[in-house]
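User: For a teaching handout, I'd like to show students what a predicted protein-ligand complex looks like in token form. I'll give you the sequence and the SMILES for zinc ion. Please answer with just the structure.
Assistant: Understood, here is the input followed by the structure.
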Amino acid sequence: MADEGATAAPLLHPCPSCGRTDRISGVPAVYVAGRNHVNVLVPRTDDRMEHTETHFVTTALSNALAPAPTTPPGLWTGCLSIPLLVVAIGTFIGGATSGHWFGGYPVPPAGAAVFPDEAHPDYAYLGVISLLALVAAASLILPAVFRWIAFRRLVEAGRPAAERLWSRAWYCGRCGTVHFPPRPGYPAQPLTFGDFRAVVWAAGGYGHLARRHHTL
Ligand SMILES: [Zn+2]
């Protein structure tokens, strides 16, 4: 439909930037063509034999023409909770083991003097550190989860409307701009990738996310 060639040329409007039609393709076709699964040969290691893995790859051009964002903004803050969880678990295990929080006190040698404070040192401070780290991790994880749920709902609800507009757009590979077919009173205008996403994503109700989407 959007392929280059003489048969498609009569259906194409000239690019409003360069005035040509020879490098014009439909935005959905360009988007899909830039998303693919590739097989990657992984060399043999000490632990694993040589094998093939399938990776999903996308081009920068495909990402620039995406009809919707794939990840919510600020997702990285949730990732900060991972080291905090490691600290929480590590200090808890260390404190429980060293402080014998759950019993298992060492039996002193026969005849040895027992000094409770020395034989069973108080590692309660590790419990405090563990608890603080756990609270800090939860304060990062929970908002990230709620943001993710709200993001998915927003995109799923608005994507059909955005795709209706998105699927009518054309990409010119000669000058790297996008345009919509002209309408009476609205001549075609060349759009940058950012402006194109802002228009399409706004149609889906998530235009505020377009400004934060960097692909190039
Ligand atoms: Zn052009």
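For the handout, you might add this sentence: Residues 1-10 have pLDDT under 50 and may be disordered.
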